[in-house]
Amino acid sequence: MKTIVLTGAAGNIGSALRQGWSDGRYQLRLNDIKPLGEMAAHETLYIGDLRDAAFCSALLEGADAVVHMAGIGTDLELELLIEHNLKALLGVYQAARTHSVRMIYASSNHAIGMYATDIDIDEYAAVRPDSLYGISKVWGEGIARLYFDKHGVESVCLRIGSFEAEPFERRHLHTWLSHRDMQHLAECCIDAPQVGFQIMYGVSANTQRWWQQSDNPIGYQPQSNAEEFAARIAAISSRGGPLAEQFQGGGFASADYSNTK
Q1: Which residues are catalytic?
Q2: Contact at 8 Å (CB) between 93 and 57?
Q3: Using an 8 Å Cβ cutoff, are 137 and 111 in contact?
């Protein structure tokens, strides 16, 4: 049985993965700053700060992979993003280097959110972050690239779309990631024989998705399709107003926008 470290285990995605893996298919080491409740037989709670090198080393020692879902998940002050989306991530990567552990990193579609909604892109498109939060995810992808090139730490960077039980606005026709497909994606990352360094779009098989996957070494085959909900949500505007409809990052891209050229 593989031993998997799940950081951010109390968050939206972390909680869904923990529930999906409640059958004990993996030995789970759970980390978060929020309460996680009672531990199952296949779960072990690790409470600590990911910026603490000694804690990170103990957390990862003997593990097979890290599913790193911890960090700031919205556009907050730069100082907070640096502490939790850069310094903490560096701590985890240094431990992964020490213990030769595979990394599955929760990047975000906001790393490329300033692309217009009338084009499709793949994982080789240049980064175009839509916010300081998006920039923090670009940092994370850069750390992953560095640690693979210099230290051989395998990484899959997941540019996660709109992780929801069901899509509820027009933008989700392009960006929705179902709970089922997120679990499948994480398992593909964990169980693939080799991953090297790879960027994968965390998106379901939506008919109208903007993000295409040119290389798929992990064998991810999503099953859900937001088009099934199109009749209900196609008329529901994206959050962030009319400007949000112009950019793939939606409301993150339209916030504090002042470009008149």
Answers
A1: 133
A2: no
A3: yes
User: Residue 121 CB: number of other CB atoms within 10 A?
Assistant: 16
pLDDT tens profile 86-121? 999 999 999 999 999 999 999 999 999 999 999 999
The CATH number of domain 3-254, selected from 3.30.70.890, 3.10.20.310, 3.40.50.720, 3.10.180.10: 3.40.50.720
Q: Quick one: pLDDT band at residue 260, thresholds 50, 70, 90?
A: confident
Please tell me the distance from the alpha carbon of residue 13 to that of residue 18, in angstroms, as a whole number: 9
Spatial distance between the Cα atoms of 235 and 5, rounded to a whole number of angstroms: 41
Digit-coded pLDDT (tens) for 31-60: 998 889 999 999 999 999 999 999 999 999
Q: For residue 179, how many C-alpha atoms fall within 13 Å in the half-sphere facing its CB?
A: 13
pTM, two decimal places: 0.95
| Number of residues in the chain | 261
How far apart are the two ends of the chain, measured CA to CA in Å?
A: 56
DSSP per-residue string spanning 26-75: SEEEEE-SS---SPPTTEEE--S-TT-HHHHHHHHTT-SEEEE--S--S-
Closest CA to 97 of 156, 157, 141, 153: 153
What's the confidence (pLDDT) of residue 180?
98
In sequence order, which residues have a C-beta less than 8 Å from that of residue 187 and are 6 or more positions away? none
